[in-house]
Amino acid sequence: xxxxxxxxxxxxxxxxxxxxxxxxxxxxxxxxxxxxxxxxxxxxxxxxxxxxxxxxxxxxxxxxxxxxxxxxxxxxxxxxxxxxxxxxxxxxxxxxxxxxxxxxxxxxxxxxxxxxxxxxxxxxxxxxxxxxxxxxxxxxxxxxxxxxxxxxxxxxxxxxxxxxxxxxxxxxxxxxxxxxxxxxxxxxxxxxxxxxxxxxxxxxxxxxxxxxxxxxxxxxxxxxxxxxxxxxxxxxxxxxxxxxxxxxxxxxxxxxxxxxxxxxxxxxxxxxxxxxxxxxxxxxxxxxxxxxxxxxxx
Length: 298
What we know:
Blueprint: E1 6-10, H1 15-31, E2 34-42, H2 51-72, H3 75-80, E3 82-90, H4 92-102, E4 107-112, H5 125-133, E5 138-142, E6 159-163, H6 170-184, E7 187-194, H7 199-203, H8 208-229, E8 236-242, H9 245-255, E9 260-264, H10 279-286, E10 291-294
Parallel strand pairs: 1-2, 1-4, 2-3, 4-5, 6-7, 6-9, 7-8, 9-10
Antiparallel strand pairs: 5-10
């Protein structure tokens, strides 16, 4: 089974990161996991001649951050969750990655920033950089909708959607999707999108037959992939649609009313995370539900 036994929530006390803390608390409660909440205080740039003043400022910021972390966690929840608060001075991205390795973290829960408009969206630079570098899955939580897990309520993923391009990294994503479905007794749908980039190709009626053949080929490929990778006894639905991948995935998640989308961070066996720069990145930024992103080589 996938060991979601050590969960890390980086927090900067913004609303998205507070929502991530709620989700992390809920996940830790549901899976009986250890929860580490980490805040990195940026180093204070002070003149060389006044190091004591800089140290005093950093110490005060650390104390304030530690107090605020405990304030955000309800007392009744803190009693039943194995909780660790980590506050340190340093470089945010580097120290978060260091914590991941030192604590043997299994999954990171992070807040993300997004807008409803498809034309305007922004993902906090720290979240984006961590997504590109971290060696463990990341569950990103958007602030677009109100929190679903007030005060760390029990998390329930009743419906899951795994969106795959059927590349080399798809088996790893399928493993996480199916095991989450088993752990949460979820309905799982696995989908892929057939993209058509040439509008003239779409418009040409005489090519409709070729388009239908291509879609049917992808459908058979998806069905074979699911049959090969799913655990015995688990019911999995499959879906093939055409259009822009990120739009179709978001639309399908909304139509099926899913609670979480599972994605791979790569596409078509590329060594670099090019997929993050397109489909996955847009979904992470825009989805009003949690998105579990699976890194390459996991």
